[in-house]
């Protein structure tokens, strides 16, 4: 596969990840966690394809300077443009993923606090229930 084809495929995979990231934001906002799990599985597939591309064509990344010098001007310009687009997309993707992670963490923390409040409330109910029980239901343990 030619370097420009590899870089084009890499750019396209980054754009796929960007589209998933946008959908992920929508699912988080809608609190659609089952949809989010499905989407994360699909994102994982794209990430695996990305890793396979890098593994199968490692020379394009590892030896870019020497590969670039052997290309004709038109192909080199195309590759440079693809690299630039990909880097821009990756920066956007990282920012979105960071924001999504922060939103999910905030939702997790909020849920945790609500669960603590519920747990505290049920403990209070148990304490009141025991305190309000008729005296016939109270037992004094003399053995313990």
Please give a structural write-up.
There is one protein chain. The protein is mainly alpha-helical and 144 residues long. The protein contains 5 helices and no strands. It has helices at 3-29, 33-56, 58-62, 64-69, 73-132. α1 runs antiparallel to α2 and α1 (3-29) runs parallel beside α5.
Which helices and strands appear, and what pairs or packs with what?
Layout: H1 3-29, H2 33-56, H3 58-62, H4 64-69, H5 73-132
**Helical content class:** over 70%
Cα-atom radius of gyration: 28 Å
Largest sheet: none
List segments where confidence is low: pLDDT < 50 over at least 5 consecutive residues: none
- What sort of overall outline do the alpha carbons produce when their principal axes are compared? elongated
**How many helices in DSSP terms?**
5
Q: Mean pLDDT score, rounded?
A: 85
Q: Give the total of beta strands.
A: 0
Order of helices and strands: HHHHH
Structural class by SSE content: mainly alpha
N-to-C CA distance: 80 Å
- The proportion of strand residues reads under 5%
Note the main attributes of this structure.
elongated, mainly alpha, 5 helices
Q: Could you give a quick summary of the protein structure above?
A:
With 144 residues, this protein is an all-alpha fold. The protein has helices at residues 3-29, 33-56, 58-62, 64-69, 73-132.
């Amino acid at each position: 596969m030619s370097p420009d084809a590899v870089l084009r495929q890499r750019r396209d995979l980054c754009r796929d990840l960007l589209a998933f990231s946008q959908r992920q934001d929508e699912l988080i906002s809608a609190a659609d966690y089952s949809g989010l799990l499905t989407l994360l599985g699909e994102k994982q597939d794209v990430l695996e394809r990305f890793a396979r591309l890098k593994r199968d064509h490692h020379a394009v990344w590892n030896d870019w300077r020497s590969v670039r010098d052997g290309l004709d001007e038109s192909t080199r310009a195309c590759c440079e443009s693809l690299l630039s687009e990909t880097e821009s997309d990756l920066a956007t993707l990282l920012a979105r993923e960071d924001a999504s992670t922060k939103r999910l963490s905030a939702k997790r923390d909020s849920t945790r606090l609500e669960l603590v409040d519920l747990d505290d409330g049920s403990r209070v109910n148990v304490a009141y229930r025991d305190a309000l029980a008729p005296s016939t239901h109270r037992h004094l343990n003399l053995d313990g």
